[in-house]
Amino acid sequence: MKKVAVVACGAYMDNGYGCPGEWRCLKAAAMGDGLFEEESSVLAFVKCTCPGRPTVPNIGMAIKALEMKPDAIHLSSCMVNAKPGCPYSTPEEMAKSIEDKTGIKVIMGTHDYK
Ligand code: SF4
Description:
Layout: E1 2-9, H1 10-15, H2 24-31, E2 40-48, H3 55-66, E3 72-75, H4 77-80, H5 91-102, E4 106-108
Parallel strand pairs: 1-2, 1-3, 3-4
Helix pairs in contact: 3-5
């Protein structure tokens, strides 16, 4: 089983219907659905908050606290596919910042549930 971390858009989590109530990211991880290659254990779930400045340091702190490295970090589907998009950074910019900080591969998305 893979060990992963998920980073999600807090603006959507706070306001979007069904999130975090349905926890689709966690379901997809548990089932090995969507962007998860196999059933995966979510070690950390980091909530981005506008304007996103503390997000990458917070991911670093979460990994440090875990004392183990996730095999991959997933940006949530609501972060990657947001329309309108994040006004502060693109998902690609966020992914690069996370990879530069942690050395861990970032996967663009979590689930494709409707
Ligand atoms: S900075 Fe962007 S990705 Fe982060 S919570 Fe705000 S809108 Fe979402």
